[in-house]
Amino acid sequence: MSDHHNLIEVVQLAFAGNPELGESVLQAADESPMYQPLFRSIAHYILSRAADGDNNNDTETRPTKRLRVQHDPPPKSSNDASNGATEIPPSRILLSMKDISFISPQRKKLMLECTELGIRAKAPGSENEVFGVRWGDIKHAVCVPVPEKAQRQHHFCIFPTGSDGVSLPSGHANVNDALVWTVPDASPPSQAVAGEDVPKENDPLSSTYRSLLIDVINRHSHKGVKVVEPDERLFTSAIAQHHRKGEKAVHVKAFRGNKDGFLYFLPTGIMWAFKKPLLFFSFPSITSVSYTSVLQRTFNLNIAVPVSSSPEDNSKSNSKDDDAETIEFEFSMIDQEDYNGINAYVKRHSLHDASMAEARRAKAAKKGQEMNGDMEGAEKEVEKVLKKEEEDEGERGGQQGQDGEEGEYAENGGDDDEEEEEGEDYDPGSEGESEGSGDSTSASDGGGEGDQIHDDDVEEDVDEEDDEEL
């Protein structure tokens, strides 16, 4: 409240010659709190000019024009029209970094500037802004390790209001793209950074690009927004990183439709990146989660959010139940090894697991019945076909047997009579021989006694022959 009262006093004093204009400035400051530091600076500037002996008219007219420019909605450049980014007017530079690689809204190398009004990107050697976001419009700020890179790097993801892919604020016709840029895990050269918030040498904050940016964003963002980073105590992947041995992964690979990407399970929500559009599911926006298509090696994760908070574009690209008030985002082909870690994360944050919800069970049962019905019908058709084939084969076999017998009889003539005569000449003694052979076989099966007797007879015959020779 003291800052607000201070602003009122300074503005009233600076616009003492034009009270109506001063009231308009205060009204604009109340409607847009993010501009209050700017209005305060303008008021101080007017007072300083008055103290230097400038003409009263100049002190009233010059700032008036500048205030009007600041208060009116800023015009969008041709680049802004495509990505919905906000233009940041020139203001005091807190931190600037050269040659920063952006991957969203545009993929190019630009200069990054953090000013007292927000974050913006400029083309090298130019003062023209390419895109930006105001501090007051930042809803989520995330810093995560770049996945699947041998050299450690960090992605900064800034989600303006309406750009998280999940919620669309009222009164916003266009959805902005998230700002995403990459910085190395290293200390920046002295010539690569500048600005009022750059700490002195040997200060702990000046160690890396990451720490510099986190410090500036945390100190200047509005509405208590802080940079969120992964916490290994909450989630780590069970799959080892071969490209960075000894370092645990804080992400899992997943597909959304035909787009491959990565899921990050963060302290404040779940993020899917880095294919457009990026998605950030804050815990308050998640209605439920569920697991589907659980197979031996993979499974799918579904995140449900209220339909009323989902952008129109996303509602068209995702399946939803007609009777439900939620819309599901499906992430598929997640490695089964990460199931336990994800499930523990879901339980830790008390997210509702709707895997066994009645609606899902009814849907699965209905699908199962349809599949069973189709299977029963298919089985009946198969049985009919097999039965018909068996009947056809039986008819063909009977016909072939009859034709074969007739042909064979005609060819051999009286063979059947000869076979009958041979049957009459059959020697009954052979029956005894066969029975004897059967006994020897059974004896051998019974322990080899028959074989032993036979061997003894042979040995006696050999001994007698030897005696005769002697």
> How helix-rich are the residues, as a percent range?
40-55%
**Total number of beta strands:** 16
Structural class: alpha+beta
Mean pLDDT over all positions: 74
Per-chain topology:
Blueprint: H1 2-14, H2 19-31, H3 36-51, H4 56-71, H5 78-83, E1 93-104, E2 108-115, E3 118-122, E4 129-134, E5 138-145, E6 153-160, E7 179-184, E8 193-194, H6 209-220, E9 227-228, E10 251-256, E11 259-265, E12 269-273, E13 279-282, E14 288-292, E15 298-306, H7 312-317, E16 326-335, H8 339-348, H9 358-412, H10 415-424, H11 429-445, H12 449-469
Parallel strand pairs: 5-9
Antiparallel strand pairs: 1-2, 1-7, 1-8, 2-3, 3-4, 5-6, 6-7, 10-11, 11-12, 12-13, 14-15, 15-16
Question: Can you put this structure into words, describing what you see?
Answer:
With 470 residues, the chain is an alpha+beta fold. The protein has helices spanning 2-14, 19-31, 36-51, 56-71, 78-83, 209-220, 312-317, 339-348, 358-412, 415-424, 429-445, 449-469, and strands at residues 93-104, 108-115, 118-122, 129-134, 138-145, 153-160, 179-184, 193-194, 227-228, 251-256, 259-265, 269-273, 279-282, 288-292, 298-306, 326-335. Strands 1, 2, 3, 4, 5, 6, 7, 8 and 9 form a nine-stranded mixed β-sheet that branches. The longest helix has 55 residues, at 358-412. The termini are far apart.
